[in-house]
Amino acid sequence: MSTMPIDLTPFDAVLLDLDGTIYHEEHPLPGAIEFIRRLERENRKFACLTNHTSSPARIAARLARMGVTIDESHIYTAGAAACDYVLENWPNNPSVFNLATEGVQQMLEGRVRWANGPDDSCDAIICGTFVSKYATEDRQRIALAILRANRATKLIGCCADRVYPSPRGIEFGSGAFTHMLAYAASVTTPIFCGKPEPIFFRELCERLRVAPERCLLIGDNLESDIAGGKRMGMRTILTLTGVTHESNLDALRESGNPNLPDQVISDLSCLI
Asked: Domain 91-192 belongs to what topology?
């Protein structure tokens, strides 16, 4: 396990996972603030990544309450990736049904036409999680009716996460919600835009104007962070402050899985 400060000069951008790497629940993790300040001091391109279905602005406000000050321009969410996907694939005033979050509503306000009922034309439905005023039972029924009536409507999940942790415990994730709706509507290929999908990393790298293979990705999740980054040719560092433990790495090594991280650290203080 590495404890040496890392030389960042070979990389054009540093990509940092948020939950489990920068913070846990409502508290910054060891070395997180100091490492972000190092990136700012050295004037390096960086982005903080999350499969959250909200907007970068809302995530920035949440981080600020923890004492982690990051401008929203440095934050990229699965919700933002879903919005980017819609705007790129339907550039001419698309019709969208929001089954996601207030953040999605804000990011697309004035840039799309909102579908509101089962008889409205609809290019895409963006699906988030159950815990949103845009994902009420009534709106779920409307989304189902739209999909069953119009096979051309695309179902877009913010991310494919099965579950996510909250103060209440384990919650149904965007992926679970999207697959439920897809099954009910006989949609065989929903589109997912969060980590570890290539869509997410391509959109982010285009925003940063960097090549994926010139990026360093640091995260706590072997599947969504490490595997997603390696698939894009990124160098990866696993931090053991989140969902992955040493036992998970041992199992991965024994299985011969190619998605092992290039480096393992206990927390971000190892990189300062």
From this structure: Rossmann fold (3.40.50)
pLDDT the model gives residue 258: 76
- Report how far apart, in Å, the C-alpha atoms of 246 and of each of 112, 163, 164, 270 are: 46, 22, 21, 17
Strand order of the β-sheet with 191-192 is: 113-114, 95-99, 124-127, 154-157, 191-192
Residues of the chain with pLDDT under 70: 1-4
* pLDDT (0 to 100) of residue 2: 54
Partners of 217 in beta bridges: 15, 236
Tell me how far apart the alpha carbons of residues 186 and 183 are, in angstroms, rounded to a whole number: 5
Sign for the pseudo-dihedral over CA of 199, 14, 48, 240: positive
> Degrees (nearest 5) of the Cα angle 32, 68, 48?
65
Query: What is the model's pLDDT at position 1?
Result: 59
- Sequence-distant (≥ 6) Cβ neighbours of residue 266 within 8 angstroms: 1, 3, 239, 240, 241
Question: For the structural domain made of 13-51+195-271, what CATH number should be given?
Answer: 3.40.50.1000
Q: How far apart are the C-alpha atoms of 271 and 241, rounded to whole Å? A: 14
Indicate the domain borders of the chain.
Answer: 13-51+195-271, 91-192
Exposure class string for 170-201: b at 16+ Cβ within 10 A, else e: ebebbbbbbbebbeebebeebbbbbbbbebbb
Topology alike, domains 13-51+195-271 and 91-192: yes
